[in-house]
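Problem 12. The chain below contains 204 residues. Write out its predicted structure in token notation.
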Amino acid sequence: MTIDLDLAGLSRRSALKGWFAAGSALIGNSILSPVSYASDRTLPATPACGEDIGPTRAMTEGPFYSENPPEKRNFRTDTGGTPVTLLGYVLNAACTPIANAIVDLWHADSDGRYDNQGFNMRGYQRTDGQGRYYFDTIRPAEYAGRTPHYHVKITPPNGRTLTTQLYFPDEPLNELDHLFDSALLMNMHPASDGEIGRFDFVLA
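Solution.
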């Protein structure tokens, strides 16, 4: 029996605990549902890996990347802003999870500014044994010529790095941003204390 949760009534922390601990028997068909292809089975590389056919699309790194970011998942202590828990899977082309992949995230703050002197709004983590990652961060603001977005680098063990960007649905500036790609839209859902964003990366 599955139970569809009303995530708007849950905190981000409670929803995250459910995602890690409960599985589909409790969280039904919500944004947190485990993907059917994230299993020990080897499946063909088909659209079953997600709505976007094929690997996650690459995107420019941009001018604000800083080398050697710290290992951290909590950006909420860096600045204020609307809380967002960003989570998902890292998968290979056969639709199986990639453990110990490095997920490197950086983005602007709630005023549209990047910290180019330190590592606020910057950090990386490694996926767990089921290929899962999550960050506690904020919704970044737009800045000149750019709609709100996250920058991400995904590096699997002994593999090639994917550099890309993630976008928010229903942002008025999306269509005005020359880099915007609808294939890189996150699945966003309100929580009682902010938002939950979901994006699963499929590596070539």
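Discussion. Strands lie at 83-91, 102-106, 122-126, 132-138, 149-155, 162-167, 187-191, 194-198, 201-202. Students who got a different answer should revisit the alignment rule from Section 12.3.
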